Every structure is written in structure tokens, then in C-alpha cells.
Amino acid sequence: MSESVPGPFFTTATPTDHVHQEETSNAGYFEVIWLLNLWFRICCVDEVAAAHADCTALVHFGEACHSAPTDKIDVKFVLGNMPTFIDEFGAQLKTVVDQLSSENIIVLMDSCFAHEQNQIVDIIKDIVPPTRHVTCANLPSEHFLKEHRENVYLGREIPTALRENLPADLIFCGFPNSPLLPIWLLSYPSCVTVTHYNPIEKTIQHE
User: Fold this and answer.
1) What is the DSSP-derived secondary structure letter of residue 27?
2) Is 151 helix (H, G, I), strand (E, B) or coil?
3) CATH code at 86-206
4) Domain regions of the chain by residue span
5) 108 with 181: CB under 8 angstroms?
6) Residue 154 contacts residue 67 (beta carbons within 8 Å)
7) Does the keyword Iron apply (predicted)?
8) In sequence order, what E strands does the chain have?
9) pLDDT for 84-108, tens place per residue?
């Protein structure tokens, strides 16, 4: 497969990797097929159904855990933007902040809430002691993917503290049944505590 530079939410595959060069009277003709996701969870890309439909590219709407990235077909993720209710998050965090014990605090967010990740980080920095180091597992930019692909996992930039296996408190902002959280904790056991903020119910739970 040819090497390519991906966009922010594209795989390393490119359309020319999959399109057969054939003479046809339908030049310039594109067919759009709507696929129901038949995978175990709707956050996964259904590349199997796409292959059966002989698709050359796939647009995935909604939440995506990025747990099983594919290089078999081009994928564009349309994640959507849902509110995190930042003021409510700050109020809830104050009730559990004394239970955060690590020097490093990692922020992880389900994709549809990640558009407000900078505001969430700022709120945390305002609440926790200034000696704490707060970093966010950001959705990577195109430049970051190009230059630091080895530091991207589950569709996120991996903070230095986790790459160095340092103890960290994880603050997760996402759905109560999000598949991202358990996969993340299995991948990074140095997260010693988990604070889970649920923007849907505006509640927080610390473990």
C-alpha cells in the first residue's frame, strides 16, 4: 500500500490505493451507499460491510473509539459536537478534587465532547493545586499525525506521562457506557484513579 499523509481523521490509505484504473463510460460518476453498522458497537468502522458493497471510501457518522483502526479503506469521521456543560463540570469536580493524588492529571474525552477539551483543561487547572501537571489526550492534528504517528493511540495523542508509565489521575468526560474508557485503562494501567464526568446527566464519579 502506498504511503500517504492523512487528514485529521483519515487512515493512511488513500482513494487511489483502492480504485481500479479502468476505462468506463461512467467516468466522473459516484455512487453513494448507506450502510447500517453491523459491528459489535456503533463506534467501530464497519469495513466488512463496506468491502461487501465494494466501497472505495467510508464516512463514519457519530462516536468513534478508534480501537480498531483500518488501513483497508479510507475513512472520514464526522464526530459531531455535544455540549459538556462546562460550568456543571467545574462544580462537580470541586466535590472530588481532594481525592486526586497524583502529580500528573490526564484528561480524556469521548470524541463528540472533545471540541471543548481546552476549556475543560482550563477549568481543571483553575481548581487543582498549581503543582499538578494537567495534560489532555487530544485528537491529533494532521501535522501531529504526520510527524508523531508513533505517539497516537486510540485516535489520541498520548501524553508524555503515560508514555513514560508515570502514575496519573485520569479525568474522563464521556458517556457512561463508553467503550473508550475500559480500553484506555487496560492500555495504560498507570492511571491509578478515574474520575468520570457524565455530560448527559451532569454527574461525576471518582474511583
Assistant:
1) T
2) helix
3) 3.40.50
4) 1-79, 86-206
5) yes
6) yes
7) yes
8) 57-61, 74-78, 104-109, 133-136, 152-153, 156-157, 168-173, 191-198, 203-206
9) 999 999 999 999 999 999 999 999 9
